[in-house]
Give the backbone structure.
Amino acid sequence: MKIFKNRTVLGVLCILLSLLICFVVTPLFNSELSQQTEIVRVKAEISTGEQITADMVETVEIGGYNLPDNVMRTTESVIGTYALADFSVGDYILNNKISEIMQAENAYLYGLDGTQQAISVSIKNFANGLSGKLESGDIVSVIAPDYKGLGATVIPTELTYVEVISVTADSGVDANTGDKTLDDESELPSTVTLLVTSDQAKLLAELELDGDIHLSLVYRGLPENSEVFLSMQDAILEELYAPEEAEPEEEVLEESQTENVENNEVE
């Protein structure tokens, strides 16, 4: 259009645009930047797993522009929690970097209550342990080649569905348990720790002694679905190891007395 070819018109439009930026856009932007909000800031070094105390943190006012939504804003919500990462002086604290519960090393072992046991089996080559891809919470089947020296490869009924609670390298570093990740060739998994009953533990120890153990992945996913497989395994174990019903002592005593009376009558 001819109007945009007129230098005077273009000059006026540029002036109006600059005025709009100076007196409308810039003040709005500065107002946003100048809005102050309180956040929790670290004032002393905090190590992973350490409980946060009042002398480690402080509340400061800073500009609220572009702050993460999950930044902690009151010291009361931080003091007494445990650090899930290392914090340096001046760091902000995000809610996904702290926990109400102490994250102990090998925390998964603290959940044992005597009804089940944790036992580790060796991964004697890379393929035996699903090529290092097993994770805690997986449901696996234990495959035993040359089971009990019979020449057959079987999945023992007692070990059809077993839960993995950790995968560990030679160095003792765990993978897929929330502690660390095996991401180096020198840190390939060498053992898998399983959650089992005492009867299953005994069988696994025998299989470990006899030869290679292979683990095949059955299920990975929602805990409620995993429980379906574990419940099926519990039912199998109850059937396999159900105690034999013994005759009550009173019935045995009565039968014995009856036999004695009959023998006396015969005599």
